[in-house]
Amino acid sequence: MTDAAPLLQGIIPPMITPLTGRDQLDHAALDRVIDHIIGGGVHALFVLGSTGEAPSLSTDVQREVVERSAKHVNGRVPLLVGVTDTSYSRSLELAQFSADYGVDAVVLAPPYYTPFHQDDLTRYFAEFAAECPLPVVLYNIPSHCKVSISLDSARELMDVPNIIGFKDSSGDMLYYGQLIKMTEERDDFPLFMGPEQLLAESVLMGGNGGVCGGANLVPSLYVEMYDAAVAGDVRLVHRLQQRILRIAEKLYGVGDPPSGYLKGIKCAMSHVGLCSDHMAEPLHRLTDDKRQTIERNLRELELPIEVTS
Amino acid sequence: MTDAAPLLQGIIPPMITPLTGRDQLDHAALDRVIDHIIGGGVHALFVLGSTGEAPSLSTDVQREVVERSAKHVNGRVPLLVGVTDTSYSRSLELAQFSADYGVDAVVLAPPYYTPFHQDDLTRYFAEFAAECPLPVVLYNIPSHCKVSISLDSARELMDVPNIIGFKDSSGDMLYYGQLIKMTEERDDFPLFMGPEQLLAESVLMGGNGGVCGGANLVPSLYVEMYDAAVAGDVRLVHRLQQRILRIAEKLYGVGDPPSGYLKGIKCAMSHVGLCSDHMAEPLHRLTDDKRQTIERNLRELELPIEVTS
Amino acid sequence: MTDAAPLLQGIIPPMITPLTGRDQLDHAALDRVIDHIIGGGVHALFVLGSTGEAPSLSTDVQREVVERSAKHVNGRVPLLVGVTDTSYSRSLELAQFSADYGVDAVVLAPPYYTPFHQDDLTRYFAEFAAECPLPVVLYNIPSHCKVSISLDSARELMDVPNIIGFKDSSGDMLYYGQLIKMTEERDDFPLFMGPEQLLAESVLMGGNGGVCGGANLVPSLYVEMYDAAVAGDVRLVHRLQQRILRIAEKLYGVGDPPSGYLKGIKCAMSHVGLCSDHMAEPLHRLTDDKRQTIERNLRELELPIEVTS
Amino acid sequence: MTDAAPLLQGIIPPMITPLTGRDQLDHAALDRVIDHIIGGGVHALFVLGSTGEAPSLSTDVQREVVERSAKHVNGRVPLLVGVTDTSYSRSLELAQFSADYGVDAVVLAPPYYTPFHQDDLTRYFAEFAAECPLPVVLYNIPSHCKVSISLDSARELMDVPNIIGFKDSSGDMLYYGQLIKMTEERDDFPLFMGPEQLLAESVLMGGNGGVCGGANLVPSLYVEMYDAAVAGDVRLVHRLQQRILRIAEKLYGVGDPPSGYLKGIKCAMSHVGLCSDHMAEPLHRLTDDKRQTIERNLRELELPIEVTS
Lengths: 309, 309, 309, 309
Hints:
homotetramer, 309 residues, alpha/beta, TIM Barrel, 12 helices, 10 strands, 11% strand
């Protein structure tokens, strides 16, 4: 990593992208969601990730998100921008655009159309890191990219200048455990967990934080869990884990898989008045009956937020 | 389908995209490749597909390919353009751009980042077909898109206006057999096979043609196979099949999977002077020793083309 | 292969095992089913395969099936016995038992519990072939065994003495096409297709027959299809294929996957009075409403058999 | 659960089966291994599991293992016997045999040849539990059985009399987390973890122990880890985890996947004089060079056992 790179750790919510229609960013909602999340005590903010539906957005909307987020976050927490794309140039241009707006780091997963070999993968990441004006966090999400970052590739890329951290959304704790083992002596190379259901155990085992989608809605809960896990407070971890699992069940489990998570979180956020539940194509908002189920479940969950709808 | 839609059948090569560097289209090579392919007697041409590395190209290069191909094909055969993208707007804009240049139809696979449900899929395709100024050929390629077009979705989408055909690259003949059964009474709804190794049997069983990557190199071989299969000349089919399988083995099997096919075909084309073997990132050309293996294999194959390098 | 080995080809039905209760073989039904199948003109008979629920049967019942089948077939057609097991000794003992009763060949798939490497697989098959008193037909069925016989392993095993043929139930025509290419010059090494929906194309492309489950019910249909494909009569193939696909849809598609095929075939056979639909655990017969659906569908199919129930 | 059922928890090693040749049990080694394992302070012993190569053994050898183990353990710790089989009768007979020898419980995974539906699965387990003379621990190992015990099935089976616990070898902590949530209020229904690399975190999150293969070699290490995790001593957990991961890397990672674990553990045990490394077919012992690598690695690991070979 470079000297200028931020030392990331803790809860870094992958922000949803509030939309009012196709390619219509909701600026006011964007500000509102940012304030809501930062107000929950999170350690950084990540826009244009999978939860932000980034690949479904037009280039213009992606840039609007970066510009507006950078201005509104205004240095309160580090800001990360997802620049994953199937086109190398588009990724690089978005990184350059982000640099112009003072973003702190970019997050990069493998290009996600053509499957390719690990040799191409390591070369791709190394080339990108060399050309990128911002530090790069690697992102492993084989459910979306098909290509996984192998443990050998991860080991090699960890030593590449300008690559400063790793987010893993594989959900595979055997893999994650190997990453922890690899970075045991690397205080400057943080590891982040994707699925929020695995936040606690990943931190208990030596990970450095989580990119928890649920933190769009209840940021403080995930911050509290992170703190409990860092402190090794297993009893508190168990209690909070039950709440986190109930959120997953009651909000993400309503819509049909495999996109019930994305639709559920946005629907729940619409019920508490944070934003609309408009989804970018190919997704569509939940049907009315499922919207109502989410509302009912939200009340049941008794989260520390007000359900307004 | 609409009255204006072309009735597609036969061999529709998925054209490679000749590049000289990152985002540098090789215009002269493009013309050369087009003439080479059409000279082989193919029935139509398909640009910006998976073999054309379309998702890896910048929007500008994609448009150059469309414009230049449309001008150079100049109506000699129907021209199809792949418009698959994770962004609905980008797909639609490329379709509109294609319509402006007189393209005959577009080919559309599911958006390929976020996995989603069949309900979203059918809605996505139906909405796109309604807005698209050109007829739409559906494209099923679960190895790249993760989401497969289910048989139920295919049945539903077949009746949607402006959807005029189906290309399947699943490699699953049980699935393809069901498609054939479904379209038995639909002379106006052609079915195309992706993997060229399955061209013969798919046509023997009732399919309507193939999108054969090898036809970039030896178009006449695949045309001959198509004709043999249509004629039910099983003896000739067997003989040609051995040649097609040897091409796959000797050219696509040299580079490491899973991209050995793409690299092999472009490398072979460079050896016969059709274009450079520059690949769009994240792919990279074959190493020198593998390039030489391809050259040696090309000579062994004794294809009806001159190896110049 | 050895001189004594039978030259297998054509339709070799995988016989169901008629049961009246747990570990209770229905001897009369066994005879009836054998006569029914042989009466349809099939080329050989295969007992104790996957369709015969062999791994679910006790060793005693397996032996009863071998003994009774051998006596009742009585040389009318070659008899093959599946001896696949996770225990090498149990496989060998069943092969020896089969040899004592004049069986013609055994069929052997990989042991199906622990996943293992291809080196162990080739060694396993070669050792077994050397010790086995009967010729061995290899059986590839990765959906059940997890371990697939790789193409390299298949190539190696083809030359092992006492291995005389190959049955593939992978459903992967790219794989099967490679097997055909490999055995092009081997008239003495037949290739058989598992899924009956792929019988026609596999024979059209050069395969040697099929192990069609539906031939338990309508043996003559599959024999007719085999003959049509051998003759290259594509028009007749298309017509018969529609019937074969309808059988799959109407009889195998009623029960929940993945065992709808097994339950459907046995249920249909019970409706025509061939045997009971009792299944070996862990399977259970179809529920009453599904039994009735099968009966209705059977009548609709207008097969050349009488529905008695 | 029944009143008579043992309350299981802690480390329950899946004992390897010491063999001297095909179907030749090494009785002296069996005693030695049992003493070695119990001497390490484990909480129970599990014979005839996957690590014990049970499905590859003949029925006679399986019975010898039960009889000899029961006699030699002699009540020092609870004894569990794996009775998983594709034949219901064989499973039940082994359970009855085990009951006759005073075994404490049986462990049962789904039958592992034919894939089947969850309805058949729950019915299978419930029927078996009702007929089985011993308490039943459910065992989920989709890598070997293909069929997974779904969360809904697990929830249903948890309430079935005579089913007293659950061992999960899926390696999927999202799944395991749900099991923990389900059994939160069930002190009498313990959950065990298969892969030893996940022992610590599963116990930290609320699980009740592990079936650790490495405990054949160094039982005390896994007992220590279990104690550390129960105590919430995260610092000690981290230190022990590094050792457990190094064992996996240095001993299980030498042989080719997917059976490197089984071969490595038995090879290591042969180097410390506990037993021969003879494997049951289809597996074969490691080659000489890999045997030497294991020996070298064993010395490097500096485990609290003497390497004698």
